Amino acid sequence: MFEVHKKWSAMLHNHSFVYIFFLGITLIIYFPVFQFTFFQDDYVWISHAKDVWAGNAHIITLRISNFVMPTVYAYFAIYVKLFGLASSWYYLANILLHALNALLIYKITQKILPTNIAFLSSILFLVLRYPLESVSWISAVTVLLTTCFLLLSGLYWLTFLTSKNPKHYILFLLASFMLVFTKEWSILLIPFIIMVHTLFCMRTNQPIYHKKYILYLIPLVGIFLSYGLIELSIQHNTNALITKGYYKIGWHSIPNIVSNILLTFVPLTNLAHTEPVWWLAMSTIILVAGLASGIYIVIKKKNPLVFGIIWMIISFLPTSFFTWDPYVSRYAYIPAIGAALCIGYGITLIQNSLRKQWITRTAIILVILYGMINVLFTYRVLNNLYKPIHEENIRFANALYEIEDKLDKSNDLAIYYDTPHKAFILPEIFHTLINIPTHKVHVIHTNEECTEYNQCYAWNPTKKIIEQL
Fold first, then answer.
1. pLDDT bracket for residue 61 (50, 70, 90)
2. DSSP conformation letters of 171-235
3. Which residue, 176, 211, 319, 427, shows the most beta carbons closer than 10 Å to its own?
4. What is the predicted pLDDT for the residue at 198?
5. CA atoms within 13 A on the CB side of 69
6. Would you list the domain boundaries of the chain?
7. Interatomic CA distance for residues 218 and 204, integer angstroms
8. Cα distance between residue 79 and residue 94, in whole Å
9. Spatial CA neighbour of 121 closest among 371, 358, 311, 378
């Protein structure tokens, strides 16, 4: 028995083994996505990537929704060049990144938690159902890349604290630089570094504050303040999300944050939609109780479980100001790091306070069962909700390929808005699939508008074909 435990401990310190283990779990959970195709915003990214290779756009100056994201633009440009329209490769990349993020969480939590508990916490992050859209939607790779660079920055910072090697500080700055140009959520890096730094110092009994730490972070703070001011200035003046009222600073963010924190642990989104008042009330009670208990525990037991809750509040904040559906799955991906910390520190608290092995084992078994329930929920959503949508998208794409030879690509054409896709995506779909420039594709809402075009088409949902009007 001792030899088995020794071998297992050795394997947990072999990060290649851990990554393969995480990747295997992720492939099992998300295997259904290999039956999926491109969906909604995927066509926007690919359409612009094709423009990059055609010389009509540049990843440095390109602005999708007016965001500065050259890292993401470069990612899609490379993928389009390598794999074209083979969607399976894009989903595989999401899966690889998700497993990598779990590994990075593991490597960070190894520095602040016992190895076994760090391993279990990372698996929990891997299997949580609520953020599943981050893995099962190609466009959500923006979240995966953001999280990857965020975690790399945190890991290199902690490594630098231990090694004092300038190489690790340079890698920290490099990862932070890449994060800045990945997504606007990069603003979360400062609080993330403060959190992991504090947790590490508490674990190693080092002073949290030191003048040299401030000096090391000055370049980072300067970069982020400058970037934040520029980004906010651009978005305030020209971003459609702001001008159309989809993103608005207001008190509505508070119920959004509170409700989403509970959903991260208990993904009953249907209940949250049908009973919003009841869900908010329950979420508020649980969050307040969690914060109060967490503060008490950190004071009395020196267990920083509350940091996981605080991180969830902070990381939900940037997306909480959206005025559309408050329960967007991919927005919970970065906050799920806090959920993993809560579980990890919760098990540590039980282990250190009760000091009874059977209770600790029972808690671990319950966490494993909880993870399995999340996996079942994920399968259900992927097969019952997402799969039918993608099957219809595949039919539309096939119908478009069937009429391609009949189209005069040199002239403008019109497509009736009622299709499996959102209307504003249709020009990007035509450009992506059959190489018609987006400015030549016009979306119409009435049959009368057809008279303005020589080519006018509509989707027939019964026959699953695209017909000429």
1. low
2. HHHHHHHHHHTT-GGGGGHHHHHHHHHHHHHHHHT--S--HHHHHHHHHHHHHHHHHHHHHHHHH
3. 176
4. 92
5. 24
6. 2-38+85-247, 388-468
7. 24
8. 12
9. 371
